[in-house]
């Protein structure tokens, strides 16, 4: 069926020859019942006509005039006379244009990248990945900061961002949280929270020396890596920490045994290591790495160090692995991947990277404000996911942005269930019990 074979159906639905003469071309989805189109004169009234009051859109552009300029985005040239009609049926918008060109000529003139928008029944499908968004460690940290602000009032100082997400950080700033990168910025005797990424022993001691009421919201999975670092260092191992230089988690972990640890960021770094091949060595990993990238580095380390020791369980956290698995699987049926998360979120960056490596264009965005209409050109299926520090609110707002501009169907895709939770820090548990 031709993309423009709906002409007869439109006529059957009530578009009479007294309204429009000449061929009629449909530039939108077709289906359902067609209401009777008002007389041609009513369309000249533009936005004053009730049917115009809704924000109708063609390819994401507001349809707020009756001339042919509205079709510029799809490569169609129409004269500057009022000739565009809208027919609405439920949630479906039908865009009808009169033209003196044949359907074949019109189709040939349209940019091929945009033709899919004009096919009958075209709809943007959103594959909503699950699991996505907050992990147990992030939930615990956010709940901890919320409770601390309620119990102690503002300001509550937080060493580094509580989690790596701009939306979350800005929300807490409005509630009275003050985020600092140095304890010198924290007045003595203040309330201080350590972020989910953990801190070094040196930082803990400095907090004590300043008489700070420190509350530790470090993710338990990060604490596990810290304890492994202490254990291996005590046993005389040289420890290779696989991670990203400058990341808060890496800084805290290396601070547990700085004399025994060497940071390894890439496969190429392995060849540069000056540790003898027969040395007593072990490895640990940052919890938010790409599983695939980490495995490549580990494999290279094992090639060189045959006696390499590893922790009993993987250091890369369950949530990081699950969200990466979901992207890997769902990308197979997607034209585009949108990852909700901030640029400084390591696990969110890995999701975007994984989609890119799968051959699917991917964008890491904080929310709907970062969206660009051109990303959706030629796209029929969109994978939407979120990093472990991104709230569901930004996911919902982004989906709403797409729905405002396109006929959309949302399909949740569950890859794995998550039922993990972590307790609040000990100080906060004791505080709530005493009440």
Which stretches are low in confidence, meaning pLDDT under 50 for 5 or more residues running?
1-104, 110-121
Nearest-integer average pLDDT: 79
Distance between the termini: 71 Å
What proportion strand?
Answer: 15-25%
What is the rounded Rg?
A: 29 Å
Structural class: alpha/beta
Produce a short descriptive summary.
With 435 residues, this protein is of the alpha/beta class. The protein has helices at 7-12, 40-44, 103-109, 136-152, 166-175, 201-209, 220-234, 248-254, 267-272, 291-304, 318-330, 346-357, 392-405, 426-433; strands at 24-26, 57-58, 61-62, 84-89, 92-98, 124-130, 156-159, 177-180, 191-194, 213-216, 238-242, 261-264, 281-285, 336-340, 362-365, 381-386, 408-414.
How would you explain this protein's 3D organization?
The protein is an alpha/beta fold and 435 residues long. It folds into 4 domains: 7-122, no CATH class; 128-133 and 318-414, 4-hydroxy-3-methylbut-2-enyl diphosphate reductase, catalytic domain (Cobalt-precorrin-4 Transmethylase, domain 1); 137-218, Rossmann fold (3-Layer(aba) Sandwich); 221-304, Cobalt-precorrin-4 Transmethylase, domain 1 (3-Layer(aba) Sandwich), CATH 3.40.1010.20. Helix content is 33%, strand content 18%. The protein has 14 helices and 17 strands. It has helices at residues 7-12, 40-44, 103-109, 136-152, 166-175, 201-209, 220-234, 248-254, 267-272, 291-304, 318-330, 346-357, 392-405, 426-433, and strands at 24-26, 57-58, 61-62, 84-89, 92-98, 124-130, 156-159, 177-180, 191-194, 213-216, 238-242, 261-264, 281-285, 336-340, 362-365, 381-386, 408-414. A 5-stranded parallel β-sheet has the order 15-14-16-6-17, sandwiched between helices. Strand 2 and strand 3 form a beta hairpin. Helix 7 (220-234) runs parallel beside helix 8 (248-254) and helix 11 packs parallel to helix 12. The longest helix is centred in the first third of the chain and has 17 residues, at 136-152. It starts with 6 loop residues before the first helix and ends with a helix. Mean pLDDT is 79; it is low at 1-104 and 110-121.
């Amino acid at each position: 069926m031709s993309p423009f074979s709906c002409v007869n159906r439109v006529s059957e639905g009530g578009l009479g020859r007294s309204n429009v003469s000449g061929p009629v071309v449909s530039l939108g989805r077709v289906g359902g019942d067609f209401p009777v189109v008002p007389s041609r004169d009513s369309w000249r009234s533009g936005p004053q006509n009730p049917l115009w009051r809704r924000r109708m859109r063609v390819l994401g552009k507001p349809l707020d005039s009756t001339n042919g300029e509205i079709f510029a985005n799809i490569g169609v040239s129409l004269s500057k006379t009022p000739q565009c009609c809208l027919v609405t049926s439920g949630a479906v918008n039908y865009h009808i244009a009169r033209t003196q060109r044949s359907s074949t000529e019109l189709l040939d003139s349209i940019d091929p990248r945009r033709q899919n928008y004009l096919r009958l029944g075209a709809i943007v499908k959103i594959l909503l990945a699950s699991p996505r968004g907050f992990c147990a460690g992030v939930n615990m940290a956010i709940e901890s900061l919320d409770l601390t602000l309620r119990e102690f009032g503002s300001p509550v100082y937080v060493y580094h961002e509580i989690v790596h997400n701009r939306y979350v950080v800005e929300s807490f700033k409005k509630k009275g949280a003050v985020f600092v990168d140095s304890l010198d910025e924290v007045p003595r005797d203040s309330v201080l929270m350590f972020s989910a990424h953990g801190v070094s022993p040196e930082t803990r001691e400095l907090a004590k020396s300043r008489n700070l009421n420190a509350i530790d919201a470090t993710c338990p999975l990060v604490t596990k890596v810290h304890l492994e670092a202490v254990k291996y260092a005590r046993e005389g191992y040289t420890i290779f920490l696989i991670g990203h230089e400058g990341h808060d988690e890496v800084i805290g972990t290396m601070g547990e045994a700085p004399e025994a640890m060497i940071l390894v960021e890439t496969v190429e770094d392995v060849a540069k290591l000056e540790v003898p091949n027969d040395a007593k060595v072990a490895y640990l990993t940052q919890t938010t790495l790409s599983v695939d990238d980490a495995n490549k580095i580990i494999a290279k380390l094992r090639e060189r160090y045959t006696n390499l020791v590893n922790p009993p369980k993987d250091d890369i956290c369950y949530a990081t692995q699950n969200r990466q698995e979901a992207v890997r699987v769902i990308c197979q049926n997607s034209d585009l991947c949108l990852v909700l998360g901030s640029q400084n979120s390591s696990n969110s960056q890995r999701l975007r990277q994984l989609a890119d490596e799968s051959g699917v264009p991917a964008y890491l965005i904080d929310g709907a404000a970062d969206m660009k209409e051109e990303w959706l050109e030629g796209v029929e299926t969109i994978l939407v996911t979120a990093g472990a520090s991104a709230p569901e609110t930004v996911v919902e707002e982004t989906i709403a942005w797409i729905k405002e501009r396109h006929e959309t169907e949302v399909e949740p895709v569950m890859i794995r269930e998550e039922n993990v939770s972590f307790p609040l820090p000990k100080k906060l548990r004791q505080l709530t019990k005493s009440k």
